[in-house]
TrEMBL record:
Gene name linked to the record: ga25528
Domain Carbohydrate kinase FGGY C-terminal: 374-456
Alphabetical UniProt keywords: Kinase, Transferase
Any one GO BP annotation for this protein: xylulose metabolic process
Source lineage: Eukaryota, Viridiplantae, Streptophyta, Embryophyta, Tracheophyta
Pfam families per the UniProt record, alphabetical: FGGY_C
Descriptive protein name: Carbohydrate kinase FGGY C-terminal domain-containing protein
Family designation: Belongs to the FGGY kinase family.
GO molecular function: D-ribulokinase activity; D-xylulokinase activity
One GO CC annotation: cytosol
Length: 459
């Protein structure tokens, strides 16, 4: 019988507002003041109302995956054959004076759990939650109070970068202002001398959400902890990190899919782009998954590990191989700002994907993070063609860079995310990339998280 804690979250007054977003949907770099406190209290465990019986899949072991994206959360409930029995989504509550990101995530989590039909709840055997890499919270392990954050994945803390670069190897994944370690060091530099620092623990987004279910502080996996400095090759934190005064804040690390605890069910942890890769169900070296969501993210199965912070490239361990990749500062967000869904469908019909577009509408620059979308052609279909072609070229440049850095050459690309629905874009990408491109059978990260729950429960 599935049980979940009933939680009470009471936000105190604060003035944090969402940072303004640029043209490509990225938050501008800025320091944060830590005025927010969210008091989280576990009151009791209560049966979600599971029913017994044989109808509608009841009695068959089911595996729940929940994906927390940038604008909302989704769940997928599958059986041992990967068949989906139920799925759904929730948009986050508005973030402003009345609430904050943590409250919105918590609310979405328990709304999704309550959305699952009672006939299915009694059959849930394990749960996996995936979140956004490098989205971080600082929590007081004595009482669960939120001491700082959440710091979102793309928030940068350049004030901490010199200190991080002084201890980490050159071009290490943590040598980026938006890395989890920079977020931790920035907080430590301002709050490390306070009494709260002694009991503080760093938690990633999915760590914290799972904590709401299992109640154990400071438990993570080696994919989430990559950007705080964990080395999956040696399966431990390196000595240069463990010698720092804030090392007691680092979470313990387990393999993705390993049991963490129970709320009468095993709980699993994983994060977003990796979960999308699991959803595509491809692990052969040379196979890749491109996630075409608000941003463009690429992942490639490689026999060789590749990490280079200069280009935002890093590797996650995938059993005996490596999942190498990174993300661009362009993607579907720019399309959403220029066209409606109906316009994208209508204009795409007028595009000949076999003919290269002469337009170069988007240029990504690390510092400027800008785009060149002017002058705009009079023909909207021609304009859309140019944007789709340009994003495909950026994707190709990304995979070429991985090869130049030593990764296994790309042989086939599966597509996840909303962009996978556009057949004309798929044909353009196939021409530009020079390899077969196809839509993944399952494209939602929530499905990949459910597969991880299944994998962990049946090991």
């Amino acid at each position: 019988m599935m049980s979940a804690p009933i939680l009470s979250a009471k936000p105190l007054s604060h003035s944090r507002l969402p940072a303004r977003r640029g043209l490509l949907g990225f938050r501008r770099d800025q320091r944060r003041t830590f005025a927010t406190r969210t008091r989280i209290k576990m009151l009791k465990q209560q049966d979600l109302g599971g029913l017994s019986g044989a109808a509608d899949g009841a009695g068959v072991p089911l595996y729940l995956g929940i994906d927390f994206g940038t604008s909302g959360a989704r769940y997928a409930l599958i059986d041992e054959q990967g068949v989906i029995h139920s799925e759904g989504k929730r948009i986050y509550a508005p973030v402003g004076d009345a609430t904050d990101w943590a409250c919105s995530w918590r609310e979405a989590l328990f709304h999704l759990l309550s959305d699952i039909a009672p006939v299915h709840r009694s059959s849930i055997s394990s749960i996996s939650i995936d979140g956004t890499s490098a989205t971080t919270l600082i929590v007081d392990r004595k009482n669960g109070d939120l001491l700082a954050g959440p710091f979102l994945y793309n928030e940068s803390f350049p004030d901490a970068l010199p200190a991080v670069e002084s201890i980490a190897p050159a071009n290490h994944t943590v040598c980026s202002g938006s890395s989890t370690l920079c977020k931790l060091v920035s907080w430590w530099n301002s709050e490390g001398s306070s009494g709260a620092a002694d009991s503080a623990v760093l938690m990633h987004q999915s760590d914290w959400l799972l904590w709401l279910l299992h109640g154990q502080y400071g438990v993570s996996d080696y994919n989430n902890t990559l950007k705080v400095g964990f080395d999956p090759e040696i399966d431990s934190y390196p000595s240069w990190l463990m010698s720092q005064p804030y090392s007691h804040m680092l979470p313990s690390v387990r393999g993705p899919g390993a049991p963490i605890g129970t709320v009468k069910e095993d709980v699993r942890s994983q994060y977003d782009s990796i979960a999308a890769f699991h959803a595509a169900r491809t692990t052969k070296p040379g196979r890749a998954v491109t996630s075409l969501g608000s941003t463009l993210a690429i992942k490639l199965v490689s026999k060789v590990r590749v990490d280079d912070a200069r280009f935002g490239v890093y590797s996650h361990r995938l059993d005996d191989t490596w999942l190498v990749g990174g993300a661009s500062n362009t993607g579907g967000a720019v399309l959403r700002q220029l066209f409606t869904n109906d316009q994208l469908v209508s204009l795409s019909k007028d595009i000949d994907p076999s003919v290269p577009s002469p337009l170069i509408t988007i240029r990504c620059r690390k510092k400027a993070r800008g785009s060149r979308l002017q002058p705009r052609p009079e023909d909207d279909a021609e304009y859309l063609h140019g944007i789709l072609e340009s994003i495909a070229r950026i994707e190709g440049n990304g995979y070429n860079l991985l090869k130049e850095l030593g990764a296994t050459a790309m042989e086939e690309v599966f597509t996840a995310g909303g962009g996978a629905q556009n057949e004309k874009w798929t044909a353009i990408r196939e021409r530009v990339l020079g390899v077969p491109v196809r839509k993944a059978e399952q494209t939602e990260a929530a499905y990949g998280a459910a597969l991880l729950a299944l994998m962990g429960a049946t090991r």
